Amino acid sequence: MYAIFFPASIDPALSASSCGAAPAHVLVIVLKQLSRTVLLGLLAGVALAAACLNCCDANFMASATSTPLSTYCAALALFSTVAAVAALLPTHRALRTDPIRALRYD
After folding, report:
1. 5 domain-assigned
2. How many domains does one find in the chain?
3. What would the pLDDT profile of 36-45 be if each residue is shown by its tens digit?
4. Domain that holds residue 49
5. Which residues, other chains included, contact 13 with Cβ-Cβ below 8 Å and sequence gap of 6+?
6. Mind listing the pLDDT tens digit for each residue in 54-92?
7. Residue 88 forms part of a structural domain
8. What is the signed CA dihedral for 97, 31, 78, 38, rounded to 10 degrees?
9. 17: CB partners within 8 A, 6+ apart
């Protein structure tokens, strides 16, 4: 899955830090890539959820499928938090490693 979103074979945080980038700059790079991918996924998920909800309304008229907006907001917050943690933990680990040593083993 990682190769789909980041086509480079080397971790972007590692390659940027090996070129002498500051850790803050590496975090900006990772957060830009994360935000683009997560935003597209969240928008697609909300659109599909709304479409499925309308489909259920059309097929099951007796069911009460009115989902409050707070449910959507809670799901968006949960998935955004999980995505941020999933991206920032490996980035933090990559920033702690010595770039020369990591490239030597690569």
Report:
1. no
2. 1
3. 888 898 889 8
4. 36-100
5. 26, 29, 30, 90, 91, 94, 95
6. 777 666 665 555 667 788 888 889 998 998 888 888 888
7. yes
8. -120
9. 23, 26, 94, 95, 99
